[in-house]
Amino acid sequence: xxxxxxxxxxxxxxxxxxxxxxxxxxxxxxxxxxxxxxxxxxxxxxxxxxxxxxxxxxxxxxxxxxxxxxxxxxxxxxxxxxxxxxxxxxxxxxxxxxxxxxxxxxxxxxxxxxxxxxxxxxxxxxxxxxxxxxxxxxxxxxxxxxxxxxxxxxxxxxxxxxxxxxxxxxxxxxxxxxxxxxxxxxxxxxxxxxxxxxxxxxxxxxxxxxxxxxxxxxxxxxxxxxxxx
Length: 229
Fold this sequence. Notes:
Blueprint: H1 3-16, H2 19-38, E1 44-45, E2 53-54, H3 55-84, H4 98-130, H5 137-167, H6 171-187, H7 191-195, H8 202-225
Antiparallel strand pairs: 1-2
């Protein structure tokens, strides 16, 4: 196995067993189940003149906000903590590209948080189905779009977290940047889709999220390679 693959595997195992993810493995399913118990899957939220929002879209929006913040904070705090502990000095003598460290942390956080969210939404819809709600093709299509939008928010948020983790010197600065700058950037491309304002622009929003994520990771990798450990 290549050093990069070993690094990704180790990061995946580390984040999956971290205290934050252990809380997320429990908290997100509870939020999803509670949401679907209160709001049936086929419910439509919003007034007569406002945008219509299905229960699944509402839960996806709520979960993406929480998951996006957590993923950005997890990766940023981890990078800064390892920089402060001089961990990256050890990688100088190993055959690993510096930006591979950034990619490994992104992949690990993105994978763990995405799995937790998708499992939680699926569990919530399953509970709702057991309660007697009929799952239609339109509901499944809506749920599929919500999951893709959720994945887009998590990816973009994790990319923001990587960038601020590389740039910031302290955890406090990174947290402030993520909460007041990063999360606004991560959620903006998806707001029209969630609110039903531009339903045909869904794939455009997904492409924008993917491009922004790639640019964030590319820029973070270049900055990280120039960092003096």
